[in-house]
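Internal QA ticket QA-208
Title: Verify multi-chain structure generation after dependency bump
Assignee: T.L.

Test input:
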Amino acid sequence: AQSVTQLGSHVSVSEGALVLLRCNYSSSVPPYLFWYVQYPNQGLQLLLKYTTGATLVKGINGFEAEFKKSETSFHLTKPSAHMSDAAEYFCAVRPSNDYKLSFGAGTTVTVRA
Amino acid sequence: DTAVSQTPKYLVTQMGNDKSIKCEQNLGHDTMYWYKQDSKKFLKIMFSYNNKELIINETVPNRFSPKSPDKAHLNLHINSLELGDSAVYFCASSQEPLGAFFGQGTRLTVV
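Actual output:
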C-alpha cells in the first residue's frame, strides 16, 4: 500500500519569496510521484512528475521538485512566488506496478503582496 | 478541444433520487478514474477502469456503480442519493507514465 503526507495544510508566502511545499510518501515498490495544482472551482492540473531517471524534475510555471529516495520525499519548490500561484497543491503517488493514484491532503498556498 | 469532459458541471437533487454523471476523454488513454473530493478538499479514489475493465474498486457504497461502454467513456451512476454524497466528483484519464489528466469536476449537492 502507498500513502502520501503533505506537511503543512497552509503555507503563506510573500510575493517574490521562495515557495516550499513538503511531501513525503511511502510505497512498497518504486513510486511514480506527481504534483498537481487546483485553482478555485477548477479541476486538477499536472505540475510535474517523476517516473525514472533524473531526480530533479522541472514543471510548468517555474516549479520544480526533487525525488530523494533516502528521505522518501518529493518536495516542491519555486524560487519566486507570484500572486497567481495562490491555489491548492496536491502531492500524489502511484506504485510503478499498480494503477492506484493516491493523493495527499493538500496544501493551500496564499501569496501576500 | 477539452481533453477530459464531464457533464453536468453542477447537479442539485433531492435525497433518494438516482443520478448519473458522464465523462469522456479524447486523449486515447487506456485508464480512467473517478475521484470524490470532499468539503475539506481530500481526494479519494473510487473506481478505475483500464480498457473497459474494472481494476480498482475502493470501499464505496454499492449505490455507486461505474460503467465504461468503451475506453473513452466512464460514467458514474448513483442510486438513492444521500446528503453525505454531496461533493465534487472528478473524472480523470491516464496513459502511464504520463500522469492523470482531470476533468473540471461535477459539483453534486443533495438536498
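Spot checks passed. The CA atoms of residues 78 and 106 of chain B lie 13 Å apart.
Status: verified.
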